[in-house]
Design a protein that fits this description.
The chain is of the alpha+beta class. The chain is 30% helix and 19% strand.
């Protein structure tokens, strides 16, 4: 009787395996992962705006991590296509920011200066993309900004000096 049970169990195992292989569709080989090389609307939407941070309202940050972004004078240096000066450190963005934004190209470093994020080529220090998170919509957030020196120069020229 034991031999019958063992043979039945063996036959059921083979039948189950044959049924599995018969229905299994060949899985497609995973291809290379497409990574964005610029900021997207999802990046902009990943951050919280106008939330309470202590006794004040935080214009932009990550509320659940109690991270409120403060303005930085270095934000004016972030101009797409320009190289950052060598005295400006290229420190990667904080971990919660890296988690909040989808992975970008492996050749780019995500950095934060104040309320702006930039994708920078660490070899050349060229700013490849910038997003200003304190803007009220995505279109304004990715629009090029005039440098403060450009604005001061334009004001100076307007006044006939």
């Amino acid at each position: 009787m034991t031999l019958k049970i063992e043979l039945t169990a063996l036959a059921m195992t083979f039948a189950g395996a044959a049924g599995f292989w018969a229905v299994e569709q060949p899985l497609a080989e995973p291809g290379p992962v497409e990574r964005a090389s610029s900021f997207t609307e999802a990046d902009y939407a990943a951050f919280d705006r106008n939330f309470r941070h202590g006794r004040e309202v935080c214009p932009v940050g990550i509320e659940k991590d109690r991270l409120c972004f403060q303005p930085s004078p270095l934000e004016a240096q972030l101009v797409k296509g320009d190289a950052l000066e060598s005295h400006i450190p290229l420190l990667s963005a904080e971990f919660p920011i890296l988690v909040a934004t989808p992975v970008k190209s492996a050749s780019q470093q995500l950095v934060r200066f104040g309320r702006s994020l930039a994708l920078i080529d660490p070899e050349t220090r060229i700013v490849e993309d910038v997003i200003h998170l304190d803007e009220t919509n995505f279109a304004d957030a990715i629009a090029p900004k005039a440098r403060t020196t450009d604005v001061a120069l334009a004001d100076h020229e307007d006044h006939g000096a």
